[in-house]
């Protein structure tokens, strides 16, 4: 019978257990748990920034990406003293605000980090608006074309935005916001944008909620952006064969038709060291005049 292997590391004065460090989590990329934790530590400043202050849901893969998985909303137990939580309803979510907490989750094989749109203690006024472009096909060669059309439309409205790979098959368009509008107001804006895209590009976009009725069209999901819902956080790894990471892009990269799998755990930190966080380049937008115009 195999004997479980354990070790420990000291992170910011806290001792963390590392169990089964040689277990393969992403076999195709040769990424073991130990390598994952090393990469996660390097990625931490950016990933924590986009999860801090939000309710965190993780997806755990105890035996790697090809094994069974489950969503984790409540904080795993036993809970170390350095892990903080935030209550929403009857759920105690992890408040991811430190490197030790991140690596503790990594050791538990939390391979994906999904952050809430609403912030802890500030549920009504989101600090970003997100349109989720969700392909109906597992492989969608038009996803960057679709993202380009959305970017062009927003630009025509005077809205600056950042495209982001989901790390899986989709692309999200992120608009940093001044915390002024409600989720309901942003939904109305999202519906306006979605309906326009469907009219302008009927062979590419849909706002049909039921996947079985979408055919091969790309769903403009403006409904996901709402209080209590989550989305893959910027810089979260994904449980895909390529160990892809949800990555903000330059619009020029969208025009070059980059692929989500181009950005993964083994190269993302080099990119970030070179470019920084592209989301930081866009100032918080004031969308109040546009919302008032389309709803009058």
UniProtKB/TrEMBL annotation:
A Pfam family matched in the record = LigD_Prim-Pol
Taxonomically, the superkingdom here is Bacteria
Which residue ranges does the record assign to the DNA ligase D polymerase domain?
A: 33-278
InterPro entries per UniProt: LigD_pol_dom, NHEJ_LigD
**NCBIfam families in the cross-refs:** ligD_pol (TIGR02778)
* Record protein name field: DNA ligase D polymerase domain-containing protein
Which species? Paenibacillus abyssi
Q: What is the lineage of its organism?
A: Bacteria, Bacillati, Bacillota, Bacilli, Bacillales
């Amino acid at each position: 019978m195999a004997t479980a292997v354990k070790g420990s590391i000291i992170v910011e004065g806290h001792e963390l257990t590392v169990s089964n460090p040689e277990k393969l989590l992403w076999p195709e990329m040769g990424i073991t748990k130990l390598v994952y934790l090393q990469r996660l530590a390097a990625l931490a400043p950016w990933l924590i920034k986009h999860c801090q202050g939000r309710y965190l849901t993780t997806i755990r893969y105890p035996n790697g990406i090809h094994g069974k998985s489950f969503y984790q909303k409540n904080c795993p137990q036993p809970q170390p003293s350095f892990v903080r939580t935030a209550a929403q309803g009857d759920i105690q979510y992890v408040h991811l605000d430190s490197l030790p907490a991140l690596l503790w989750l990594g050791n538990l094989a939390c391979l994906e980090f999904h952050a809430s749109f609403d912030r802890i203690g500030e549920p009504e006024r989101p600090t970003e608006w997100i349109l989720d472009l969700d392909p109906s096909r597992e492989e969608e060669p038009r996803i960057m074309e679709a993202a380009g059309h959305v970017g062009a439309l927003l630009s025509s409205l005077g809205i600056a935005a950042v495209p982001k790979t989901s790390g899986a098959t989709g692309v999200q368009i992120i608009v940093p916001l001044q915390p002024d509008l409600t989720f309901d107001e942003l939904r109305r804006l999202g519906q306006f944008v979605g309906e326009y895209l469907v009219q302008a590009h009927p062979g590419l976009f849909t706002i049909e909620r039921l996947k079985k009725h979408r055919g091969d069209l790309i769903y403009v999901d403006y409904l996901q952006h709402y209080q209590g819902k989550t989305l893959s956080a910027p810089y979260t790894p994904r449980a895909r064969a390529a160990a892809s990471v949800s990555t903000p892009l330059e619009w020029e990269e969208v025009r070059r038709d980059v692929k989500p799998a181009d950005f993964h755990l083994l190269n993302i930190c080099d990119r970030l060291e070179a470019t920084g966080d592209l989301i930081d380049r866009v100032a918080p937008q004031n969308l109040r005049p546009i919302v008032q115009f389309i709803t009058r």
